[in-house]
Design brief:
Strands 1, 2, 11, 12, 13, 14, 19 and 20 form an eight-stranded mixed β-sheet that branches. A four-stranded parallel β-sheet has the order 8-7-9-10, sandwiched between helices. A two-stranded antiparallel ribbon has the order 3-6. By secondary structure, the protein is an alpha/beta fold. It has eight helices and 20 strands. It folds into two domains: 199 residues, FAD/NAD(P)-binding domain; 146 residues, no CATH class. Bound molecules: flavin-adenine dinucleotide. Flavin-adenine dinucleotide binds next to α1, β2 and α8.
Length: 377
């Protein structure tokens, strides 16, 4: 199998790079082993204070509407967090208070949305709260097994019965100016979000639940669909296990499922994420990158990897693979000519590219542009 570019990792970084290259007519494949950080996505992209139109368009073409109002979003514990570029699920408030009176609504048997914490947090900010649990007959089949009563399962049903929820909330609503709902709407049909907002005579705020994140899973599905519609090959559930390297360049990739059928390409992009996605691994002696054995920036003394105060910033989260100015990955001190590293596997080694979602998107676009420029030359 031969492609222009093979990408390892199908999270935000890998998909952004893959879509950009496919849009420019390049043949690409993404190998993606498992869950990625989008499955836990809050709905707001970190360090995207300024979003170039190109990013907004790339998402819009995939069916993902992003909006940006400098402001604050409501967190699951009832606190407010400064926020940047966000999905349409996320309400951004100009001031640090969401309203005066809030009705918090959840569903009986659903334990992944903490109404009590939300109420406590909001009341500390002077918002009067009332909590109501809706008993919906359509959710009874999920209630029989607590493992089924999860955000995504509920969201599948909600896409069909959201009008019943609106009707029930209209009956419950007294003089509240705000209705707070868990993010379990619009999994497949995002128009449900605006229709709920239109149907309830108060501002409606959708707030985070325990993972998996419904807006995150939707984002992943839509980006993947866009990539495949553009002709990209997405090898779901496969794992890159090694590579053939000759003369400082990657010749092909070995994957778990393809065995002796190696994946050849002119360029390779490593977008395998950080520790969370096993793009980086650690043992008591070192932090390593498992596919290519790349150089990883890290403190020599293990006791410097972490801060013993658990809630403090942890140094190991900043570690990542080292790259040259063009994001070529470095192995044994030398850049590999046709291997680039993007996204959270960079840790905070490239602060100029931002953090979180901002880093994933910026580094992906940067590398896609370089690959395209290289073929023009
Ligand atoms: C739990 C969590 C929540 C986050 N929430 C937010 C948020 O709300 N907003 C924000 O801006 N940032 C958030 N971040 C930061 C996040 O790192 C970035 O936003 C971004 O999504 C990272 O994308 P990525 O593509 O670099 O890596 P990932 O999303 O981690 O994707 C890497 C993918 O590569 C795959 N992979 C790994 N090794 C291999 C291999 N050998 N072969 C094949 N596939 C492989 C993994 O299975 C995974 O699917 C969050 C991070 C975490 C860990």
């Amino acid at each position: 199998m031969k492609f222009n570019t093979v990408i390892i990792g199908g999270g935000l970084a890998g998909l952004t790079a893959g879509i950009s290259l496919q849009m420019a007519g390049k043949s690409t494949a993404i190998i993606s082993e498992g869950q990625n950080a989008l499955h836990f996505f809050s709905g707001s992209l970190e360090s995207m204070e300024e979003a170039p139109q190109r990013v907004v368009d790339l998402f819009a073409q995939a069916g993902i509407a992003l909006h940006y109002n400098p402001g604050y979003r409501l967190m699951p514990m009832g606190t407010l967090k400064k926020s940047t570029l966000s999905l349409e699920d996320i309400s951004l408030f100009p001031e640090t208070k969401i309203g005066n009176k809030a009705l918090i609504v959840s569903f009986s048997g659903y334990h992944d949305f903490f109404c009590g914490f939300l109420q406590e947090g909001l009341e500390k900010q002077g918002v009067q709260c009332r909590v109501q649990l809706l008993s919906l007959p359509e959710l009874e089949h999920l209630e029989k097994s607590p493992s089924e009563m999860r955000s995504v399962q509920i969201a599948r049903t909600m896409d069909l019965i959201w009008e019943n929820v609106v009707r029930e909330i209209r009956i419950l609503l007294r003089d509240e100016d705000t209705v707070i709902l868990p993010q379990v709407f619009g999994l497949k049909d995002t128009s449900v979000l605006s229709r709920i907002r239109q149907g309830i005579p108060a501002q409606v705020v959708f707030t985070g639940t325990l993972p998996p994140s419904v807006p995150g899973i939707r984002t992943q599905m839509l980006l993947k669909r866009r990539y495949e519609l553009l002709g990209g090959t997405y090898l779901m559930g496969d794992q890159a296990t090694g590579a053939h390297i000759h003369d400082g360049a990657i010749h092909s990739i070995v994957t778990h499922n393809l065995g002796n059928h190696f994946m050849e390409a002119e360029n390779f992009i490593l977008a395998s994420g950080s520790f969370f996605s096993k793009g980086l691994r650690s043992n008591p002696f070192e932090i390593s990158e498992p596919v290519f054995g790349l150089d990883v920036e890290q403190a020599e003394d293990r006791s410097d990897w972490y801060n013993p105060e658990f809630m403090r910033e942890q140094p190991y989260m900043k570690y990542g693979v080292t790259t040259d100015a063009s994001l070529h990955a470095i192995k044994g001190g030398e850049p590999i000519k046709n291997l680039y590293a993007i996204g959270s596997i960079l840790g905070e080694t490239r602060p100029e590219l931002g953090t979180g979602g901002g880093l994933a998107i910026r580094s992906a676009l940067e590398v896609a542009d370089q690959i395209l420029k290289q073929t023009e030359e």
